[in-house]
Amino acid sequence: MHKKVLIITYYWPPAGGPGVQRWLKFVKYLPEFGFDPIVYIPENPTYPIIDEALAAEVSRDVKIIRRKIFEPYGLAAWLTGKGTKRISSGIIPSNHKQTPLEKLSLWIRGNLFIPDARRFWVRPSVRFLRKYIQEENIHTVITTGPPHSLHLIGLRLKATLDIRWIADFRDPWTSIGYHKSLKLTPFSEDLHKSLEEKVLNAADQIIVTSQSTKQEFRDITTKPIAVITNGYDVALGKSDVLDARFSLAHIGSLLSERNPTVLWQVLAELVRELPGFADDLELKLIGTVSNDVLLDIHRYDLDPHVNHMGYVPHHEAVKHQKQSQVLLLIEINSVETKSIIPGKLFEYMVSGRPIVAIGPTGSDFAPIVAQTHTGVFVDYSEKAKLKETIVDFYQRYKSGNLSVEALGIDQYSRKNLTASLAELLR
């Protein structure tokens, strides 16, 4: 007999972007391991990215419960205009480029909506779910964040019901990259940390996506912490048709703080120095790109080589991953972000295309790239290594033998990762 598991998540189709993929896939495979997932989501959410195609991946057999949510983004948008939409999408301009209204919006977001703007869904959700859990005889509840306010639903349910509560952190809480941009007062900073500590010490089991986050949480709690990374659920195999030009593709959001100036410098130098490179180069930007990044690209005279495609549905992104000559994986150059393993890494690894990964020293994804033989990692100080890598890939492209053969990637398939989750649920 299958066991019921209640999953509380904010991001669900038709939401697009990486936040929806993790639990969409867990829910897909959990029935194969003896569990019936019940998914609790908002009825009227404010999603910054929409991907209608993902709805086709939701099984008709999965029970989904929707309840209305109040989000203050309507008022914020009226106050700050387009800035709110940019910020809710993760595009936070650098401090000196923020308008007064954007600064106000960030201050409000950080200090009045703690831990985030979805906090108003906590009380009505707890009121509804208390009764529902008892009526349906549910013994296991999973909350996933961000938004981390959803963990407060688990916290309150755990306090009043005899349930097993698992808190899944797709990203860290107080150490996440954008946290320092929220203009927090000392009181607000302390409140965030206090809520984080309460959640980590009340949950029966914690799941994180990287070893660094596990170590960070180890300093806060003695509760069991499991690492289950993100993964891939796309068909293995290479594309029969590759881009004719030497395409370097970045798929996903390029935030202001994720702006790889060292890459633009290297590409500009190669355009000037390497015969044929200027004619062959194509820089494919697929997803939301901040103005800071576009201005930097312009500053290095790379505009003629840019193909800015904007957001595309996930299945189209997968197609570009397999057809592009080189895939770019870029993370913010910060100690706080070394624990982030971008979800797209795993889909990159099964594409058969080489990866150029750029991140802070000690990044958790660096050994994954090395161990799977899927590309080269460089930190932001290794300009010479970055240049050598791109030259090597370009020369292999010209000779027609640019590809990689990934090793040991089965462990990152969504089905195998769900098997690890199922072990925790037993």
Protein model, in words:
- With 426 residues, the chain is an alpha/beta fold.
- The chain folds into 2 domains: 3-72 and 113-231 and 414-425, Glycogen Phosphorylase B (Rossmann fold), CATH 3.40.50.2000; 246-398, Rossmann fold.
- It has 16 helices and 13 strands.
- The model is unreliable at 83-91 (pLDDT under 50).
- The chain has helices at 18-29, 73-80, 82-88, 100-111, 122-136, 149-160, 186-202, 211-218, 261-273, 277-280, 291-299, 314-323, 344-349, 366-371, 383-398, 414-425, and strands at 3-8, 35-42, 63-67, 140-145, 164-169, 205-208, 225-227, 246-251, 281-286, 306-310, 326-330, 355-359, 375-379.
- α2 packs across α3, α5 packs across α6 (149-160) and α9 (261-273) crosses α15 (383-398).
- β4, α6 (149-160) and β5 (164-169) form a beta-alpha-beta unit.
- It is globular.
- The longest helix has 17 residues, at 186-202.
Q: Compute the gyration radius: what is it? A: 22 Å
CATH topology of the largest domain: Rossmann fold
Measured by DSSP, the beta-strand proportion falls in 15-25%
CATH-defined architecture of the largest domain: 3-Layer(aba) Sandwich
What is the β-strand count?
A: 13
Low-confidence regions: 83-91
Determine the mean pLDDT: 91
State the order of secondary-structure elements, H for helix, E for strand. EHEEHHHHEHEHEHEEHHEHEHEHEHEHH
Read across the widest sheet, the strand sequence of neighbours is: 3-2-1-4-5-6-7
